[in-house]
Design brief:
The protein is mainly α. 47% of the residues lie in helices and 9% in strands. One of its GO terms (biological process) is cytochrome complex assembly. One of its GO terms (molecular function) is RNA binding.
Amino acid sequence: MFLNTAASKILQKGRQKSPFAFIQKFGYVDVYMKWKKDSYYDSIEHITKSIELKSIISLKNCIAQDPNGCIPISAVSKRGLEMGVSMKVARFLRLYPSIFEEFTGPEYNHPWFRLTPKAVEIDAEEKKTYQNCREDLICRLKKFILMSKNNVLPLKIIRGMQWYLGIPDDLLQKPDVNLDGSFKLVKMEDGLEGLSVECEEKLMSVIQKNAIKRGVYSGRTMESLEFPLFPSKGLRLRRKIEDWLKEFQKLPYVSPYEEFSHLDPNSDIAEKRLVGFIHEMLSLFVEHSTERKKLLCLKKYMGLPQKFHKAFERHPHMFYLSLKNKTCTAILKEAYCDKSSIERHPILRIRRKYIHLMKESAVILKNRRFSNHLVHGENSVLDFDLDTADGREIPKC
């Protein structure tokens, strides 16, 4: 009798829960995968040079925004930390003579800096690109905010991710004026000023759109959808992990724009939703990559789990972790292995042009060092020839 009663209680509890609740717990495997270096992703220039390029463009904007098109070093010498410059700002500017031109100022012989003609040309093209692609950039910002828990993010968080989203400064300086009517400035619970978005349209992620094009997905809620995988050469998974990954691919797909509070945070489906969220977010970014530590500020507002960074390690067929430049950068593999699947960010072409100027600077500095070496070498020979037979030096005129 007792067994029958206990069994009936379990069945009643089971009926009260949705069938989906049982699926969520299915097949969780504590996956650990050894990191493997991949020279292809470690050598993508606009990723490896992103940190210094960000500082260069910040300084470039300070000069370009000045009415005279030039500034004294005192205007930026104390803003190094703000602009991500880890050395003296003057020294940093002198590292890029193809971008910044130094000259003596009108007073006190202070060094002044202006943009070179090539930098001025690219800056004008950059402004034109921002103007022509304004709607696309606003759409990317809208999607980024709509992935948050309550469709609202603090302005300071958005500004912190501004470089990755490729958003110009003027859009966020006066968002109530520069953005469309779907954006609203709000006060958040923690006292921060936030930017919210209202959108009745059902948004679809890049993964969903590509799957519909291939005819393998109809767009229904909780429909199964497999992620595109791009294994690195020589990266082999253990049999247990391969079996888990096959089952993981068969699980229902939850869009990053859909409600997810009903998911068990410790389930494989919650992890699949997290992986889809990261994929969509990186697809919106200019370089389809980001420093992993930069995502920590998003945890609270995006509803990310405490150890969300493990998703990068558990899914090496989708993400690559680059350890270049003494930081850990997460890269979306699909953006570089199947370039037709993810739309290229309009501002990426401009950043590549700045990188080309950075490479020109390296050549200029190398030629200067070579010229100085020749000059010093010639002087040493001349000094030797000036010595007379009795060891006395001939005086210079």
